[in-house]
Amino acid sequence: MTAAPHPAREACYVVVGGGQAGAIAVATLREAGFAGRIVLVGDEPHLPYERPPLSKEVLVTPATAKTTLFDASFYADRHIECRFGVAATGLDAQARVLTLADGERIAFDKLLLATGARARAYPLLDALGDGVLSLRSLDDALALRERLLPGKRLLVIGGGVIGLEVAASARTLGAEVTVIERCLRLMGRAAPLHLAQSLLELHAAHGVHFEFGAELASASKADDGEITLTGVDGRVFHGDLVVYGIGVELNVELAREAGLQLDDGILVDEYGMSSAPGIYAAGDVARQWQPASGRYVRQETWSNAQHQATSVARAMVDGTPCEPDLPWYWTDQYGHNLQVAGAVEAEQWLTRGESTGRYTQFGVSGGRIVGAITFDNGREMRPAKQLIAAAVPLGDAEALLDIKQDLRKLATSRIKAAA
Amino acid sequence: MARVHVCSVADLPPGEGRRVDTTPAIALFNVDGEFYAVADMCTHATASISEGYLEDDCSVECPIHTARFCLKTGAALCLPATEPLQTFAVSVEDGEVYVEVAQGEGA
Ligand SMILES: Cc1cc2nc3c(=O)[nH]c(=O)nc-3n(C[C@H](O)[C@H](O)[C@H](O)COP(=O)(O)OP(=O)(O)OC[C@H]3O[C@@H](n4cnc5c(N)ncnc54)[C@H](O)[C@@H]3O)c2cc1C
Ligand code: FES
Known about the structure:
The complex is a heterodimer.
Chain A: E1 12-16, H1 20-31, E2 37-42, H2 57-60, H3 72-77, E3 80-84, E4 88-92, E5 97-100, E6 105-107, E7 110-113, E8 117-119, H4 123-126, E9 132-134, H5 138-147, E10 153-157, H6 161-172, E11 176-180, H7 193-205, E12 209-211, E13 216-221, E14 227-231, E15 236-239, E16 241-244, E17 248-250, H8 253-257, E18 266-268, E19 279-281, E20 286-290, E21 295-297, H9 302-318, E22 328-333, E23 336-342, E24 348-352, E25 359-365, E26 368-375, H10 381-389, H11 397-401, H12 407-418
Parallel strand pairs in A: 1-2, 1-7, 2-3, 7-19, 9-16, 10-11, 10-16, 11-12, 18-20
Antiparallel strand pairs in A: 4-5, 5-6, 8-17, 13-14, 14-15, 20-21, 22-23, 23-26, 24-25, 25-26
Helix pairs in contact in A: 1-9, 10-12
Chain B: E1 2-8, E2 17-20, E3 26-31, E4 34-39, E5 53-54, E6 59-61, E7 68-70, E8 87-88, E9 90-93, E10 96-101
Antiparallel strand pairs in B: 1-10, 2-3, 3-4, 4-8, 5-6, 6-7, 9-10
Bound molecules: flavin-adenine dinucleotide and FE2/S2 (inorganic) cluster.
The site of FE2/S2 (inorganic) cluster has 10 residues of chain B, from loops.
């Protein structure tokens, strides 16, 4: 028999990016019933892993830290072809062909971009070479752990979540820590001011030193490795090690080459599909249209990577639109667990159980519960999220703040009453 | 096997959970009058499962990163957990609740 000029090939879905979103997506494609060929391409040499432990357990309790999402057999059992340690270097949206760094060309029917982000570079500091680190990948975390020794003087540039987690882990390991922040407060837009203030107090109580309003002008390294940073206002900081966390840069090079519409991320519709038919995006790199709020939203959280990857992969298989997910993240510092959900810009915050050291706060705007914070009180986050999702009127605030009342029961009855 | 007394049935109303200070610690739940016992330490990181959110389908959601576990089998039902929780037999006699722990473990 002679081969047909265009041999029919099996339907093929490709996922680019072997991070959390990519791994969850390939698993979901199979679970949702896609029986064709699935290829997962990731440029890191590791099996896909979760990043949250990198600034926490991987530094403090490496022996028991777990980061890998699924072991190799998970992919093999589901006939998911993995290309790890190989970057995707070319994307032709019209011809639907992906090219890899090793020359392999993969023709696909649908493709998901889950390329995430990388740490934003800080050329002023990077120029110093050894002794300056940022933290995005497992390899970054391992390099940092090696250098974070008791008594070392660590300069953390950037008072965002990652900077603060590194500061907490470093203090726990016995390093001396100074956090240098350009703004006058911590956590930028990720937390309301009062929460940023409590975190500042928590860190100060653990011996972290803070410098606010400090913009760096110059950086130098002596022969013995001591690093000196000078602020534009003349402040001088000395350290043995610098870690900076000043935000991320999105990995949108492939998307740009393919001509996809970009605006602070790959713009996708409620199915997760980009401006190019058959090409989707999820995770840190995706900015998704939310019909309910009439806006595009991009989130850099574990929860979003998880939820969006699941729902976009489902949409690729059976065409169901994605349900919006309530913004939610957690951070662990000094053994405390902090969780934030919904709108951080609420007009007013009410506290439930302050005196107990573990508390829940409700953010209220326009008489409705729009946000929640739990401090060592994760058990109340679930009912708090339900209250936010149902847009329940605040009602009797006294009952809500009375810790003798079970929040789960209270939430159930209020949601019923509001329906 | 050793049998450890936990509490009276009346001490743990339906929908509630509590931690039992055995080694390793156990989380005991009352689901509509049925008692279930699983290891208290989440297999993902270090949360106390007894603080978790009890779902209607006899599963519990971890209070820290929201992994869910089946209380009957201990199976991890969703990420970030992948490893099951150990389960323990529970018995109720004369209104008192007991959990079975391996010899050498105990309160
Ligand atoms: C240190 C740290 C701590 C964090 N802690 C928390 C926390 O406590 N709570 C929380 O909610 N969130 C946390 N986050 C955020 C969370 O981890 C991210 O939102 C999540 O990892 C996003 O997943 P992703 O799959 O979209 O992207 P990524 O995890 O960035 O994965 C993308 C992958 O694609 C690869 N890739 C990119 N381009 C290509 C290409 N062309 N070819 C092949 N591969 C490519 C990248 O190398 C990467 O491996 C933390 C992040 C970091 C870095
Ligand atoms: S500790 Fe339970 S899910 Fe992370």
